[in-house]
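RECORD TYPE: protein structure
NAME: Calaxin
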Amino acid sequence: MNKRTTQTLAENISKQVEHFSKKEVECLIREFNVLMAEQNNSGRAVHGLDRGKFISTLHSIFGLTDDRMTGRVFRTFDKDNDSVVSMKEWIDGLSVFLRGTLDEKIKYCFTVYDLNGDNAISREEMLHMLKGRLIRQPNEEDPDEGIKDLVEIILKKMDYDHDGKLSFEDFEKAVKDENLLLEAFGTCLPDFRVICNEKLLSSLNFPIKNSQSYSLLFLFFQRIEMFEGRVFQEQMEQ
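PREDICTED:
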């Protein structure tokens, strides 16, 4: 893609997405083309980033390594459900992923966590997402009991209409009351600062001081500055 074509495409896309300037969109187009070239060189010639390449990019660039979450992030970026992330979807998704407002990130995270797309997060979905995120101690008999207890605590705190599931309105209100709950069911954003497990559990009133059996296993990475420094600043200097 030559420079003029890139500039024209960037001008059109920059009018349709939030948070990025035209010059930044140009940089993101070039980055997308680099990723596409790497994908096509491996023999996967498609018109957008396929699931494998997209997820490997989340791993390598943004440090997101939970396969249960990265698969959902792919589906959230792939808005037309054609099994690839197009250039427009890539840039549109990154606008929220990197620079979204709290309201935009609430909508994004809820979509990631709504596994079956029924506009609610059920008990079963919470159990599925939290399974494996609690560390079992050697003397514990049933590792699922701690997860079930945490789900009930989450529902007690976040289920404002008491219907046994989280609607978008429940999730939105809970996160605005306590921002730490934005990624309560798994890391799906790259900009969450490192916080200790006890702080998140404390926000849920989880009785960690009385029961040391489990602690949430969350790994948070600070990758936005690195990505933007490489893609935007270095390419703008070229």
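COMMENT: The mean pLDDT is 81.
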